């Protein structure tokens, strides 16, 4: 089934989600962003209309997908929902409860794709887990149908569990990527190419597909080799990075110790 959709947002997730939905046969009628250039950039990719004022957002879409910063969702819902009582409203945020639409929309829910997105890097949505939730059975069916048209991994999850999924995703992706950045900075001090570390990074990622991250952990922090860790700390010139190292070392060792009890 094909739906008529309006995308509210033009960021990383909004870009990749709208492209995937269009590729799956849905019609993106409009893209809204308060920044005209951003709306136009995405709309041009989709071949649809770009708008930058809420009064120009169409009223005849089947669904409105709000993919913006978390603190902007409520304001958009308050502005758009009252005049579109037959439409389904959904947001794509990991940590915002579905109830943000309460008293605003009649039919509403969530479609949360758990992945890291960049505007310029296309992803295979079929592999991405999508977590859905809805205000009623009919709306759930619609959101599930929409999600299943782009993903082979769709699950119904309530807001409290989704918040935990998002938290875990931050650790697994955002914080891990920041560790890559810290490693890159250390390498840059010696003019060493970060790409030399790609085989290491790939192997760690492969290992956790076949074993628990707990069992995959190695290195001086597991055995708490103080002499090695002290030497490494002496090579770190930034105090905040040293604090991160110490906290991670203690956490890794504590987890390893509990594992062997």
From TrEMBL:
Coiled coil: none annotated. Residues 128-251 form the DUF2520 domain. Pfam families: DUF2520, F420_oxidored. Residues 5-83 form the Pyrroline-5-carboxylate reductase catalytic N-terminal domain. PANTHER family: CONSERVED HYPOTHETICAL ALANINE AND LEUCINE RICH PROTEIN (PTHR40459). This is Predicted oxidoreductase, contains short-chain dehydrogenase (SDR) and DUF2520 domains.
């Amino acid at each position: 089934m094909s739906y008529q959709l309006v995308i509210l947002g033009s960021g990383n997730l909004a870009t990749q989600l709208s492209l995937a939905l269009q590729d799956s046969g849905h019609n993106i009628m409009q893209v809204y962003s308060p920044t005209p250039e951003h709306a136009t950039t995405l709309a041009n990719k989709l071949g649809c209309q770009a708008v930058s004022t809420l009064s120009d957002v169409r009223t005849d879409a089947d669904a409105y997908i709000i993919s913006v910063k978390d603190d902007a969702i409520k304001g958009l819902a308050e502005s758009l929902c009252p005049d579109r009582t037959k439409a389904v409203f959904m947001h794509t945020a990991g940590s915002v409860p579905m109830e943000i639409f309460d008293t605003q929309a009649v039919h509403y829910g969530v479609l949360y794709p758990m992945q890291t997105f960049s505007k310029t890097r296309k992803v295979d949505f079929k592999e991405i887990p999508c977590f859905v939730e809805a205000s009623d059975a009919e709306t759930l069916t619609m959101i599930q149908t929409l999600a299943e048209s782009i993903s082979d991994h769709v699950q119904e999850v309530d807001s409290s569990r989704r918040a935990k999924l998002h938290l875990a995703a931050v650790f697994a992706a955002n914080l891990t990527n920041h560790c890559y950045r810290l490693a890159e900075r250390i390498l840059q001090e010696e003019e060493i190419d970060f790409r030399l570390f790609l085989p290491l990074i790939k192997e760690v990622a492969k290992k956790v597909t076949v074993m628990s991250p707990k069992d995959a952990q190695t290195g001086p922090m597991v055995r708490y080799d103080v002499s090695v860790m002290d030497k490494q700390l002496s090579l770190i010139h930034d105090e905040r990075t040293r604090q991160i190292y110490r906290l991670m070392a203690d956490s890794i060792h504590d987890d390893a110790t509990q594992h062997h009890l």
